[in-house]
Amino acid sequence: MENTTKSRILDEALVMFAENGYRGTNLRDLAARLGLSKSALYKHYASKEDIWNALLNRMEAYYEERFGSAEHLSSSPKSGEELFAMTMNMIHFTVYDERIILTRKLLLTEQFHDERVCSLATKHFLEGTKKMFTVIFEQMIREGIIKNNDPEMLAFIYTAPVTTLIQHCTRKPEEQEEVVKQIEGFAKHFIAMYVVT
Fold it and tell me: In 3D, which of 75, 191, 91 has the Cα closest to residue 135?
């Protein structure tokens, strides 16, 4: 029961932090939305900062488990088709997963107020994804799947436009379908340019 309550607290805290920011969220309102007393909330978390840190930890683990990282990769794609499929699976997770949508919104708004959030935003919006694709492209170049090139530069070329388009989804969620189609077109163009046929 305790784990379920703790999870419910974090679920609702994510919604409230994404809607109101850290400063605009208070524990009395969080407890009320959960149907708990404030003292019952304190049985699970000692402070708003404890909830915040637990939420950031959970978000990092959730993202890495489902999206991956340079340190935790399955095998690299063996063809342009596999690269496209892997990319679009990542995009669908990033664009449509409700928890990730709220996380993106939270990271965008709070990155200017919290050093840890700023680091997470940099990691998830550019550096971490670029690093992961650098590793992927290094392997694909070694295997002769991608033309010999600078893998880090290729990763930057591949991830920067996609990251920009995903941020557009955060600001304009009604344009998600159009953005996903643009990303599909971009991924196909990149593959046509750099994958050995």
Answer: 75
